[in-house]
Amino acid sequence: MAPRRPDGAGAFPVPVESPAPAPPDPAELYAALDLGTNSCRMLIAQPKGSQFHVVDSFSKTVQLGEGLEVTGSLGRASMKRTLQALRICQQKLKRHKVRRMRLVATEACRRARNGPEFLRRIRGETGLTLEIIEPEEEARLAVISCAPLVSTRTEQLLVVDIGGGSTELVWIDLSSVPNRDRPRAIMRLHAGFHPPQSPFPAAKVVDWISVPLGVATLRDQFRDVEDDAARYALMSWFFEENLAEFAPYKDEQTREGFQIIGTSGTVTTVAASHLGLRRYDRTKVDGLRMTSDQIDKVIRDYLAMGPAGRRRDPRIGQDRQALIMSGAAILQALLRLWPTDRLSVADRGLREGLLYAQMSADGVLEDAPV
Asked: Whole-angstrom Cα distance, residue 140 to residue 146?
């Protein structure tokens, strides 16, 4: 039996992206597709108040970036797996008659020599037009997706998106924004990290960075290290070294009023392990707050399991057992560097950010506290 959810775990606003109650009008639908280094994910949703209802979804591990660190190109098998997944997405879009959509590709296609060529092949074989987005936009969309989880008491916010091929970090100053308006100020970043003058109080982006190390690319850097614990320690140290130019890292920060939100499969898997879930439950994970001690305990348990034990763990499994340790190395490095003993867990990311950005730009979301 899963343990009782800790008191205070739901202290942040509960998101309301629930399934749509009835067949929606196709004219009201929006779609967002995220083709990453490791996964292909899509959401189809309709706006509802200041949130949205999910109508349909898709997620598949495709390992598009497999071998990219060595060859510099997308592999034949990886592209074949990805095309199979995208054909399913195309069928869902056609079935729901979606007309408003944004389909994006990230780090693997940015880095691969044959990335643009692969996108042309996708269009020819599936009819889907994907665009490669820049790291700044990827970071901005991750921030927007987390707006409902921003506490009204937060003055300094760090949003971390641990992807397959890269990790985006964005530091935001909310101290000049009235408390009640802070989540809403994050949503307004859909216009850019430095939006034009507005009558509303603005969230100030202090700094942001896109580190070209995600769960897949960091793992590949140390694939030749056989010892499990040594490989983990090296990955964590190496990631920390790559954060040296991130400006807030250089200054002493106050613990009070600071919030860190983590969004990724790594963070949600660690949260599910902490809760002892036998079957993943987004409603228990999204918005959960974990202490650094709780996260450390989960990671120590992962190391004690070893590769074979992690494969057998229902929360990790065969596909993710190697990736979870590179993700954990990134997560633990971040918690060493910044002044917090708590992490807010976000089961959301690029897809949600793409939907919020489209809906906000079209003015179909109510400008109410999220």
From this structure: 10
- Whether 49 and 101 map to the same domain: the answer is yes
| Pair 53, 18: CB distance under 8 Å | yes
Give CA–CA dist 317/308, Å, rounded. Answer: 10
Distance from C-alpha of 181 to C-alpha of 227, rounded to nearest angstrom: 49
Domain extent for 202: 137-346
The model's confidence at residue 342, banded by pLDDT at 50, 70 and 90, is confident
- Looking at the DSSP bridge assignments, the partners of residue 42 are 33, 58
Q: What is the DSSP letter of 113?
A: T
pTM (2 d.p.): 0.82
Query: What distance in Å separates the CA atoms of residue 148 and residue 183, rounded to the nearest whole number?
Result: 6
CA distance 287 to 149: 6
> What domain count does the chain have?
2
The most distant pair of C-alpha atoms in the chain lies apart, rounded to whole Å, by 57
User: Can you list the alpha helix ranges (DSSP code H) found in the chain?
Assistant: 68-71, 76-96, 107-111, 115-126, 135-145, 182-187, 215-221, 228-241, 265-275, 282-285, 292-312, 317-337, 350-362
